[in-house]
Structures are given as structure tokens and as C-alpha cells.
Write a structure and sequence with these properties.
This protein is mostly helical. 59% of the residues lie in helices and 6% in strands. It is built from 28 helices and 10 strands. α8 (128-136) runs antiparallel to α17 (369-384), α16 (334-363) packs parallel to α18 and α21 (452-461) crosses α22. The protein is elongated and about 100 Å long.
Length: 657
């Protein structure tokens, strides 16, 4: 420390007007232009999406053409990247699309079963949404189609309105209505820049929710794995355990269990080989399709269905039938459908954007979140009109697509065409496909949803986030999907409210040899300026929820400092500088709080100075006449200038630090 003091650099003090003790830069704070109004921000929200870049010297016609072209490219990114698309990329996309279809066909059938729909509806969902996304999406690797979590979410909530076993027609109608509304919500999120709604589900909540959902999905597959005829519609662990134990007393056939476990081991073994030897990644991609083919052939050859093995039986062939007339927007269940739709929309977007961004970062390009929302929403709107349910990006299929060398969304088109051909030609061959093998395919995809390592990392970094993770996990596991999400959101908002109510208020000191002020708790080497208390408010919004706490904390500290310095007249506090550099905005309660701080300090004979208030904050302070009461001469651009102004006013010196 002695050596540091020996080389102490001189502190640069801004030029002051002797008569007004204000530096030349202080007027910038009060003379800044008015910030944009709420109306200006709202008007520019949608226009930002389609606003073209204007070239200098362009005429009116050229500008209109540029606007149209930019708008079309914003809605259909294929018009932009299609210009540079070549035969080499097409070959890679064809191979990736065929590999993707080999995984997607059996998974889609299994996920349709999880959604309590007939098998063909999962295949329909792998045709139309991928085609729409291919021309509207910005991710080059993402694979669109049905996924396990959304399938579970949809079935667990819709079946509370209508039982799919007793009234499958109404159940499908509600599913298509939910899918349409989910698409509308997703498009709205993208158009009006409401992507922040997706962020309400924090990373910790998603980790816990996915882990709990994976276990619930796995428990649901016990019905197919054990060949049970009766099973509970509830998703919680307790209900499923009771259903399994009660079903074990009834006659059951071990052939289902043997088929399911054998092919589950086969799929997991090929996945291990594919990860161990990167060139053999295709083994894990085709293993589900091979499992379906082999198990179907085995059941057909041995007539195992006559001995208790549960099979799919009939799968309707042909193109997606229209379902426009089945979408009910004015029916008795529209409100319930809207509630389910917004949950499905948020979960689907969260998964898709997370998957897309992770692979975009590997390839070194940026994913446009708002365009992704619009593309995903349009895919689901079109899908709802063609007998599809909610589709989103699948992590497992996207990983296969990436490993197979996909260069663009053309791989989605190839996959959709392949599934379409399968729907036309090969559906009759699935008659003898055992339900147990579909259960094994779904079970094989679940380990990727349970991220124990990430949960452990959350525990080490932030205990409150880990509590959110546990809340979502146990809520899904012992309650329902909605309860899990509700618990996670409740804890997340509680965390936000607690941090908003009790923001950090820090005493600052100057780092020797600089004009930098920082927290004396975080940086103990920082030197506090005698007679001037510098306090920083660490909240972006000084408002009704925290104004009282901040006021009381500041007054408490100042009173304690005054009492401690009364014995030393030279160190007695005569000024308090409020560093408001972190305060972006303020409401009327915050303004009232500042006025009360000013009055309380004035009663103690202490002058208040404000340093670096945010743009919106200083504007409202002027409109609320807080600046007039404090005095324009006590508003400064930086904390350093405010300290120098206070010391100059009281004939002090800053050379001690």
C-alpha cells in the first residue's frame, strides 16, 4: 500500500465556474432533449420489423421498392438466403432431411399417442408446420414437428375439459382450436415485440419443468410398455403409481414388456455408439425406424397380437385433411382453450428459441427471436387448419439434423415430403406395430430432458434460482403441468418483488488516483471523501414499491454518519451526493421520496446533490418540480463532479483521496 501511495497519480478536476461551482458538463443533464414518449415507442414497434434501409439519393419509387423487398424478406427469409443457395448445399440438405425423416416418423407416431390422438395426427404435424417454417424461419438447423413436452402439456390440460376416450371428436376439435390460438399468440408476440413474455420462464424454471415433465412422460409410457388396458388420465406420480399397482393385479402379458425393453436397449446402445464415434451418428438417427420395422415384422410373423401384445392397428393414410371447420372460436370452451393456448405458445417458443439459438451460436450466426415467433405462429395457424396440433423445435431431431450436415431449412422440406410419401404409401404396414416399441422410442428421448449437471450448477450459483427449479420440478411431478409452471412463476415473481422492494443502496468511495467511485463494501481500498457522503441507488426503477425503503436506508445511514462525525468538526457531513446513474426511470412515489430525502437532509443542515440521473428520470424530476426544489445548480453529470462541487461550495479539498 505504501508503494501505491508513492506513485499516486494526480486527480483531474473538471473546470469549474467559480461563481456557480458547476462544471461545464453539468448543464448537459438538464438541457438534454425530451425522451421518446410512450406513443412514439408504440408506433415504432411494428414498423421496426419492416423498416427498410434507405440508400442516399434514392427516389420515391426506389424507396417503395426497397420497403416492399425488405418487408418480403423479413416475412420470408428464404428470399434472402435463397440467392446464394447452391447444389452442394442441396445435396447436404437432402441427406439431412432423409435422416431426419427416419427419426421423425416413429417419434411423431409416439408423440401423437402421448397427446392422446390417433397416430396419423403426429405425422400430419410433421408435414405442414415444417413446410411453413422452411420459408419463414431464420434457423438453418432447427427441425419442426411434435415434441414430447408440448404433447404432454396439451393432453394433460385438454382432457380436463373433454375425455378423449369417451368423446374423441370434441377432443380433437379442442386440440385444433388450441393450436390455432397458440399460433395467433405466437404471431402477436413477434409482431408487437413481446418476446419478453417468453423470458418470464427463467432458465432455472425451464430446467426444473423439463426434468419433471420427462419423468411424468416416462411414467405415462408404462401403459404401453406393460400393455395395460386401464390407466389413469392424471399425470402426477401418486396417481400413476396407484394405477400401475392396481393394474398389476389384472392379467398382463410380458411380451409387451420384453419387446419394449429390448428395443429401448437397442436404441440407447446405438445412441451411445453414435456419440462415441461421430461418423456413425446416423445409427442413432435410424434406430427408431429400424425398431418399428423389426418389431412390426416380429409381431406379424409370430401373431403376437393374438397372445396379448398391444398393436396400433389402423392408421389412416393420405394427405392432411382440412380441419378449418373444427376450429371453434365462439364455442362454450373458447376461454379454456385460450388459457391452454397461451401456456402451450410460451412453452413451445421457449423450447424452439433455446434450441435454435444454441445451434446458431455453433454456426456463428444470429437468430432473430421476433421472426422466429412469427414463423412458429404461422406454422401452427396453418397446421391447425390441416389437422395438426402444436408443433415446435425438437432438440433431439435438431441435433440429428445438425450432425447430418443440414445447411438450410430445405432439410425440413425434404423431411416433410418424405413423411407425406409415407402417409400415402406405407401406413397399412404399421397395422402390427406394437405399442411397446412406441413407448420405448419416447423413453429413449427423455434422458436429454433431465439435466442434472445444469441443476447442480444452478445450486452452486444461485440458491433462489435452485428453489425455482425445485418448485417447477416437484410441482409437475406431484401436481400437474400447470401447477409446476404456476409454482415456478410464483417463486420467480416473488424473487423479483423481493429484489425490487429491497434494492441495494451502496456507500461509495473514490479509487485513489482516479475519478472512479465504487462501493466501499465491494472494493475496500476505495477511499471515502471526508464531509461528503456518496450514495448509489442500485435500481433501474425508483417507484412506489421501493421508494420508502430507499429513503429510510439513506436517512438512517446519514444520521449514523452525522452522529459519528459530530466529535470531529473537520469530518462533519455537510453534503450527500445521490448517484442515480442506475436509475433509468422514476414514478410519482419516487419523486415524493426524493423530496422527503431533501427535506430530511435540509433539517440536518446537509445539502443534497444528484449525479447522473437517467433520461426518463431527469425529465420527470423537471416536470415534477423536484429539480426546482433541490436547485438546478445541484444536478451533475457524474458523481466525481458532484463531489467536487460540494467541496468547492464548502471550501473543502478533494486531495485527501
Amino acid at each position: 500500500m505504501e508503494s501505491m501511495a508513492a506513485v499516486e497519480m494526480p486527480v483531474t478536476v473538471p473546470a469549474f465556474d467559480v461563481s456557480s461551482r458547476r462544471p461545464a458538463t453539468a448543464g448537459l443533464v438538464l438541457n438534454s432533449p425530451n425522451p421518446p414518449s410512450l406513443r412514439d415507442e408504440l408506433v415504432g414497434v411494428v414498423g421496426k420489423v419492416f423498416r427498410p434501409r434507405r440508400a442516399n439519393g434514392d427516389g420515391g419509387g426506389a424507396r417503395r421498392c426497397a420497403w416492399v423487398l425488405t418487408a418480403l424478406q423479413a416475412v420470408f427469409p428464404v428470399l434472402q438466403w435463397g440467392k446464394t443457395y447452391n447444389l452442394k448445399s442441396f445435396r447436404s440438405d437432402v441427406m439431412a432431411g432423409l435422416t431426419l425423416a427416419s427419426l421423425g416418423i416413429p417419434q411423431s407416431i409416439g408423440y401423437a399417442n402421448l397427446a392422446k390422438l390417433d397416430p396419423q395426427y403426429g405425422l400430419y404435424t410433421s408435414v405442414v408446420p415444417p413446410l411453413i417454417y422452411a420459408v419463414m424461419g431464420t434457423s438453418r438447423e432447427i427441425a419442426i414437428g411434435p415434441v414430447a413436452v408440448v404433447s404432454l402439456l396439451l393432453s394433460s390440460m385438454v382432457q380436463k375439459i373433454v375425455d378423449p376416450a369417451s368423446d374423441p371428436v370434441t377432443y380433437r376439435t379442442l386440440v385444433f382450436t388450441v393450436t390455432f390460438l397458440a399460433g395467433v399468440f405466437q404471431v402477436s408476440f413477434g409482431l408487437f415485440r413481446l418476446g419478453f413474455l417468453v423470458d418470464f420462464l427463467s432458465h432455472a424454471a425451464i430446467v426444473g419443468f423439463m426434468g419433471g415433465a420427462a419423468i411424468v412422460i416416462g411414467l405415462q409410457q408404462l401403459k404401453g410398455l406393460l400393455g395395460l388396458s386401464k390407466f389413469t388420465n392424471s399425470t402426477d406420480v401418486v396417481s400413476v403409481a396407484k394405477a400401475v399397482f392396481s393394474a398389476l393385479h389384472d392379467p398382463w402379458h410380458p411380451g409387451n414388456f420384453l419387446i419394449g425393453c429390448s428395443f429401448l436397449i437397442f436404441i440407447l446402445a446405438t445412441r451411445f455408439i453414435g456419440r462415441r464415434y461421430k461418423k456413425l451418428f446416423w445409427l442413432s438417427a435410424i434406430s427408431p425406424l429400424v425398431s418399428v420395422i423389426l418389431s412390426t415384422a416380429m409381431v406379424y410373423a409370430t401373431r403376437a397380437d393374438k397372445h396379448g401384445v398391444k398393436i396400433i392397428r389402423e392408421v389412416h393414410a393420405g394427405l392432411n385433411p382440412s380441419s378449418i371447420k373444427q376450429i371453434q372460436l365462439n364455442g362454450p370452451y373458447t376461454t379454456e382453450c385460450a388459457k391452454i393456448a397461451i401456456i402451450c405458445a410460451v412453452i413451445a417458443l421457449t423450447e424452439a428459441i433455446a434450441v435454435g439459438r444454441s445451434f446458431a451460436s455453433i454456426r456463428g450466426y444470429k437468430l432473430d427471436g421476433n421472426k422466429e415467433m412469427i414463423a412458429m405462429g404461422c406454422s401452427n395457424i396453418a397446421g391447425s387448419m390441416s389437422s395438426c396440433y402444436v408443433a415446435t423445435g425438437s432438440f433431439s431431431r435438431t441435433a440429428v439434423n445438425f450432425s447430418a450436415g443440414a445447411r438450410s431449412t430445405v432439410s425440413n422440406i425434404v423431411m416433410a415430403v418424405t413423411v407425406l410419401i409415407a402417409l400415402e404409401l406405407f401406413m397399412k404396414l404399421l397395422y402390427y406395430t406394437p405399442m411397446a416399441v412406441l413407448a420405448s422410442i419416447i423413453l429413449s428421448a427423455l434422458p436429454g430432458l433431465i439435466d442434472i449437471r445444469e441443476a447442480w450448477s444452478i445450486w452452486k450459483v444461485d440458491k433462489m434460482d435452485f428453489l425455482i427449479c425445485l418448485g417447477a420440478f416437484f410441482g409437475v411431478l406431484f401436481g400437474s403441468v400447470e401447477i409446476g409452471l404456476g409454482v415456478a412463476l410464483a417463486i420467480s415473481f416473488a424473487k423479483i418483488i423481493i429484489q425490487s422492494i429491497r434494492p441495494q443502496v451502496e456507500v461509495l468511495g473514490r479509487l485513489q488516483g482516479t475519478n472512479v467511485f465504487c462501493s466501499v463494501r465491494q472494493y475496500p481500498v476505495a477511499c471515502r471523501t471526508p464531509a461528503v457522503q456518496v450514495i448509489r441507488i442500485d435500481t433501474s426503477f425508483l417507484c412506489f414499491i421501493n421508494a420508502t425503503f430507499i429513503k429510510e436506508r439513506i436517512i438512517e445511514w446519514v444520521r449514523a454518519e452525522v452522529e459519528a462525525s459530530n466529535e470531529k468538526a473537520r469530518e462533519r457531513v455537510h453534503s450527500v451526493v445521490l448517484d442515480m446513474s442506475n436509475v433509468v426511470n422514476i414514478d410519482t412515489s419516487g419523486l415524493a421520496g426524493l423530496e422527503e430525502i431533501h427535506k430530511d437532509l435540509a433539517s440536518l443542515g446537509i445539502q443534497i446533490a444528484i449525479a447522473s440521473p437517467g433520461w426518463q428520470a431527469i425529465q420527470k424530476m423537471k416536470l415534477g418540480h423536484v429539480v426546482d426544489r433541490i436547485g438546478e445548480e445541484w444536478i451533475f453529470l457524474t458523481a466525481s463532479e458532484a463531489v467536487e462541487g460540494c467541496l468547492t461550495e464548502h471550501k473543502g479539498s478533494a486531495t485527501e483521496c
